[in-house]
Amino acid sequence: MKICWRVLFIFCLSYPVAHAGELELSYGYGPRDENLRWAISGDITGNAPNIMSELTWRNLKGHEHYVGLNYSAPSGWMGRADIRIADFRSGGEVQDSDYKLDNRQGEYSRSLSATHGSNARDVALLIGQRRYLDEAITWSITPVIGVSRNVTDLRMNDGMQAIPASGPYPDLNSSYRARFDSIMAGAETRWWFTQTLGLDMKWHHSWFNYSAEANWNLRTQFQHPVSFYHEGQGVDDRWVLGLLARVNSEWTMELSHSIRKGMFQNGLDVSNLANGARQNTLLRDVEWSSAATSLVVHRVY
Q: What is the pTM of this model?
């Protein structure tokens, strides 16, 4: 919240500058890492035990394609659409642990598996008004608002039972699809500190509804294809820092690094049992993080 007030203060000190409208098309590509963890309790009150089962997808590694379309009107108002698609083919591991006692004590089951086929898709629509902090119009700030949808499709395969040590179970082919539907607000700034070099910085804060569906293909006590689902609400933040190199009036290159982190607590876990019944328990917490580094090409029309 303090950041929001600082952005508003800076915005009040800035001023709009009339300029020709422009359309900018961007494409980026580079490595992306992903992590997601969730835990459920033994009952709806968060007890028996407080953490009964915990799933962790860690160090999913792959590559991200980014496409952006940005229009800036002569008045300074802008609108942008961002699309990101990532396939995690370069590594990753899933750990599934079950506990008898509170605070992750009494672990009686642990399985490890691969993440082949996991992917992510992100779409965002934003609007804002660009204003300038100097008469030379080399430093701009743009408060933005928008909406987004992020879908992360996580897989579990090539399983190995570690506790108890009963060995591999190659028929594992489970999935967990998480969806974040968000409204967001933030600020973006661009500063050209020379004629050809600049910095691009973005911060977006999101409030989201979380929903996820799982298909545990080897668990006969669950229905299929939706064995259980999760619901909750939370917040996350995304930071982007880019180094800009202007080639000419039409083309700009950027080396960009982005980080996204978020979490929430006290959601709902609903299991669809094979006998037709439903069982509710507390989705104790969900947390995730993502990091991507991309080489981006911008073309102004």
A: 0.90
Polymer length of the chain: 301
When divided into structural domains, the chain yields a total of 1
DSSP conformation class of 18: -
What is the mean pLDDT of the segment spanning 25-41? 98
Q: How confident is the model at residue 270 (pLDDT cuts 50, 70, 90)?
A: very high
Beta-carbon neighbour count of residue 247 at 10 Å?
11
**Greatest distance between any 2 Cα atoms in the chain:** 70
Coil, strand or helix at 8: helix
φ, ψ for residue 273, nearest 5 deg: -80, 155
What is the C-alpha to C-alpha distance for residues 272 and 269, in angstroms, rounded to an integer? 10
Full domain range(s) for residue 106 = 2-300
Whether 244 contacts 195, CB under 8 Å: no
Q: Are 24 and 300 in contact (CB under 8 A)?
A: yes
Average pLDDT over residues 240-267: 97
Q: What percent of the chain has pLDDT over 70?
A: 92
Would you say 8 and 59 are in contact if contact means Cβ atoms under 8 Å apart? Answer: no
Amino acid in the structure at residue 22: E
Amino acid (1-letter code) at residue 69: L
Which CATH number characterizes residue 270's domain?
2.40.128.90
Residue 105, CB-side half-sphere exposure with 13 Å CA sphere: 6
Interstrand relation of 131-132 and 119-129 (parallel, antiparallel or unpaired): unpaired
Distance CA 241, CA 277 (A): 49
- pLDDT above 90: percentage of residues in the chain: 87
Secondary structure class of 39 (helix, strand, coil): strand
